[in-house]
Amino acid sequence: MTLACLISRLNADHDPDAMLQIVCDETAHILGVTGVVAGAYDEQRHMIRYMATCGCDLPSVVDLIPPPASPASPTPHRVSSSRGSAAIVIGLWRDEQPVGALAIVLPDSQSSLTDTEWGLLSILADLTTQAVTNAIRLDSARSRAADLEAINTLGRALAETLDLDRIYELLYEVALQLLPDVAGAIFTLFDAETQQMTCAFAILDGERLNVSQFPPIPLAPLGQGTQSTVIHTRQPVILGSLEELNQRAPVVIPVGSEDDDDEMTESSLIVPMIARERVVGVLQVQSFSPGSYSMAHATMLGMAANVAAVAIENARLVTDLKHSNVELRHAYNRTLEGWSHALELRDKETEGHSQRVTDLAVRLARAVGMSEEQVGYVRWGALLHDIGKMGIPDAVLLKSGKLDDEEWQLMRMHPIYAYNLLMPIEFLHPALDIPYCHHEMWDGSGYPRGLRGEEIPLAARLFAVIDIWDALCSDRPYRPAWSEERVRVHLESLAGTHLDPVAVKLFFRMMDEEM
Question: From CA 364, how far away is CA 359, in angstroms rounded?
Answer without folding.
Answer: 9
